[in-house]
Structure formats: structure tokens, C-alpha cells
Design a protein that fits this description.
This protein has 422 residues and is mainly beta. The strands form six sheets. The protein has a 14-stranded parallel barrel. A twelve-stranded parallel beta sheet has the order 4-7-9-11-15-23-27-31-35-39-42-45. Strands 14-18-26-30-34-38 form a six-stranded parallel beta sheet, with no helix packed on it.
Length: 422
């Protein structure tokens, strides 16, 4: 009887030993590859290392400048540089989508501690993937004809932390363009001097009036300007930004730093600083969120979302933002009865913001939902109507524990201006 027990125990021991060996073997499959521009590493180009790697591998890139286009090809690997000033990925001014992450790469895909620069179109394309970026400088990328100068995200789940986007440009979204069903998390990141500079000239055509035979002028293409100096977001996307800064970004039309047009999307902003952003022709010196009838017609929606866009602001600072020709020095929102919008602002500060038209700090129109403003200071803002806040057409406003002082209206409503079903 003792022998039987012994053999059974031995079987258990053998089974555990085999399991342990399999675990060790599996873990040992993860490898670390080195890339050095002087050929002293395993590879001299990053793409060669990615081609050799498998999921879970780590690629260490040494100091130097690397010009090769990069495609992760569905591999969830970590690409780690030697620091922003040491490892430079340079698109050489002519790369079409310099880095591609578009084949289902998971959140194990990481890019860290390097600079990505000088790509003619987008610096990084993310489509249907979930990469993470840590300690990356995105600089000097894009052109006035493409969306998202530094990065375009389509149906992606992306995390960006401790990074910087500077001096990128695009038609819409000078730094980032987010579309589809995407979720983007931004933490401890700076967006500075990015620009949405797109412009489409109005094109007129001619046709004959069927009754009179006279020539009638019609618009073939409507005039359009760039939106979202730093970030442009569309579709059913969500954006969450925390402990970050948006400084000196500019749009040719609206949303000097951020423009959001979403179907049931939410923008959540926590501990964010907005400083010296501007919209040159449109509304929202820092932030623009809007939907209109044309959007509804284009989408051909059958079932409408309860709320089309929600803006949640907690402990933000808005200083020196300007709408140079329109409304909302810091924030502008404009909804539609088919597309309600909602905004909540808490424990925040608006100072020295200015609108050429209405709402020195905030201008809201046609939300068909609620504006909740609590524990917030509005000081030394200036607009034509509503030195601090302008409210118009179909919205419910609740304000509590507010410090409103030294705001200026050139026409009416030094602090608040409200009209038409507010």
C-alpha cells in the first residue's frame, strides 16, 4: 500500500516539475534585441528588429538618428529608446505615415523614451490597435492637407503619458486626430504650438433655372477651415486627459486646442491647464464642441443618442485663451435638438480669456441639456455680450459657489448674458 501511495506522489511531483519547466520555457521565449546605428547591436535598423521579434519581446534602440519606416505588423513588442534627446526617429520630411500600428497590436505594444519627428504626413498611424506611449516627443510633423499631424487614431485604444507634442500641423488636429470608436487616455503630457491650418476654398458652379432659363450660381464645395489646433475628435470616441497642459495651440477656425464632434462621446478633463490658445476665425479659443443639422444629415442616423457629447471639467485652469473673431474665449459649445450636449465644470478657474463676440470665458448655445457650474472663479474675462458667460437658446443652467469679478462686456452682461429659453 505504501508503494502505491509513493508512486502516486511521485506522479504529482513529476506533473508539477513538467508544469514548471513549461512555464520557464514560455517565459524564456521573450527576448531583448538591440538596435544601434553603428551596427554594433543585433540590428542596425528598427524594422529588422521588429521583423525578427515575437510578441512580448523588447527592442532597445541606442543613441542615433533612424530614418527607416516602421510597421509593427501585428506584433505586440516594446520599442524603447535611450532618451528623447538620444534616440531620434526621423521621417526625413517625406514619410507617408512614418510608423504604422494597424494590425491588432495589444496594449503590450509600447513606444518609450525617444523622439518621433519630421514626417510629412502623419507621424504615427493607429488603426484597430491599443499601443502605449511613454516619454515620447512628437515634433515637427504633418502638413496642412492631412488629418492628425503627429498621430491619427482610428478605432484605437491608446494611452499616452509623460510625453510632449510640439509644433505639429494638420488640416484638422494639429497633433492628434481621433475617429471611429476610439478611447484615448492622456496623462502628464504637454501640447504646445500645434496648429490646425487646413483651408478649403469655396467652389461655385453654375446651372440653369428650369423655369426662367437664367443662369443660377450654386456652391459645389463649401469653404472650410482647420479645427482643433492640438486635438480633433469625431465619431463615437472618448477622451480622458489628466495633469496635462495645452499651451499656445491655434486653429484656423474653431477649437484652438481641442475640437470634439461626437456621437455619445465624452471628454473628461482633470487638472488640465489651457493657456494662450486661440481660434483665428471660429469659436472656442481653447475648446470647441458642437453638432448641427448638417452633421445629422451626413450621419443619416435612425436611433439618436440620449446625449451626443459630454464635456466634464474638474480642476482646470483657463488663462489667456482667445476667440479672435467669434464666441467663447475659452469654451464654446453649440448643440441641436437632435444632438443634445452637456457640460459640467467644477473647481476651475477662468482668467484673462477673451472673445471678439460673445462669452469672454464660456459661450453655450442650443445644448438642449444642462450646464452645471460649481466652485469656479471667473475673473477678468472679456466679450461683447457676457463678459464671463454667454448662454443662449434651450439649455438649463445651474451655478453654485461662484466667484465672478472684474469681467467686461462691451455691449451687455458684464458677468452673464442669457437669452432665449435659458
Amino acid at each position: 500500500m505504501t508503494q502505491v501511495v509513493f508512486y502516486r506522489r511521485l506522479g504529482v511531483v513529476m506533473s508539477l516539475l513538467v508544469s514548471t519547466l513549461l512555464l520557464v520555457s514560455t517565459n524564456s521565449l521573450a527576448a531583448t534585441w538591440t538596435v544601434n546605428s553603428d551596427s554594433s547591436g543585433d540590428f542596425s535598423t528598427i524594422q529588422e528588429a521588429i521583423d525578427a521579434a515575437v510578441d512580448g519581446d523588447e527592442i532597445r534602440v541606442g543613441p542615433g538618428t533612424y530614418h527607416d519606416n516602421i510597421n509593427f505588423s501585428g506584433k505586440s513588442v516594446a520599442l524603447i529608446g535611450s532618451g528623447r534627446t538620444e534616440t531620434i526617429l526621423d521621417g526625413a520630411g517625406d514619410s507617408d505615415m512614418f510608423i504604422r500600428i494597424e494590425s491588432g497590436e495589444t496594449s503590450a505594444t509600447r513606444i518609450e523614451s525617444l523622439t518621433i519627428t519630421n514626417a510629412w504626413n502623419q507621424g504615427v498611424l493607429i488603426h484597430g490597435a491599443s499601443p502605449q506611449f511613454e516619454d515620447v516627443l512628437f515634433s515637427g510633423m504633418g502638413n496642412d492637407e492631412q488629418f492628425g499631424g503627429a498621430m491619427i487614431i482610428v478605432n484605437g485604444f491608446v494611452a499616452i503619458s509623460n510625453s510632449e507634442f510640439s509644433e505639429n500641423r494638420a488640416y484638422d488636429g494639429g497633433a492628434l486626430h481621433i475617429s471611429g470608436t476610439s478611447s484615448v487616455m492622456i496623462d502628464t503630457t504637454t501640447f504646445e504650438s500645434n496648429i490646425a491650418n487646413g483651408y478649403t476654398e469655396e467652389v461655385l458652379g453654375e446651372e440653369l433655372d428650369e423655369e426662367t432659363g437664367e443662369m443660377v450660381e450654386v456652391t459645389v464645395i463649401e469653404q472650410r477651415w482647420g479645427r482643433g489646433g492640438a486635438i480633433h475628435m469625431t465619431g463615437s470616441s472618448n477622451l480622458n486627459a489628466a495633469d496635462s497642459e495645452f499651451i499656445d495651440n491655434d486653429s484656423r477656425w474653431g477649437g484652438g486646442a481641442l475640437c470634439a464632434r461626437t456621437i455619445d462621446g465624452t471628454v473628461t478633463l482633470t487638472d488640465v491647464i489651457w493657456e494662450d490658445n486661440s481660434s483665428s476665425r471660429g469659436s472656442g479659443g481653447a475648446i470647441l464642441m458642437w453638432m448641427d443639422d448638417d452633421d445629422m444629415d451626413e450621419m443619416e442616423l435612425v436611433d439618436f443618442a440620449e446625449i451626443f457629447g459630454t464635456l466634464l471639467i474638474e480642476r482646470n485652469e483657463f488663462a489667456g485663451n482667445k476667440s479672435l473673431r467669434s464666441n467663447g474665449g475659452a469654451i464654446y459649445m453649440d448643440g441641436d435638438y437632435q444632438a443634445p450636449l452637456r457640460i459640467e465644470v467644477n473647481d476651475s478657474e477662468f482668467i484673462y480669456n477673451e472673445a471678439n463676440s460673445s462669452g469672454g470665458a464660456i459661450a453655450l448655445s442650443g445644448l438642449y441639456d444642462e450646464f452645471i457650474l460649481t466652485n469656479t472663479d471667473l475673473t477678468i474675462n472679456e466679450g461683447r455680450n457676457g463678459g464671463a458667460v454667454y448662454l443662449a437658446s434651450q439649455l438649463l443652467f445651474t451655478g453654485t459657489f461662484l466667484d465672478v469679478s472684474s469681467n467686461t462686456a462691451r455691449d451687455a452682461g458684464g458677468a452673464f448674458y442669457a437669452s432665449s429659453s435659458v
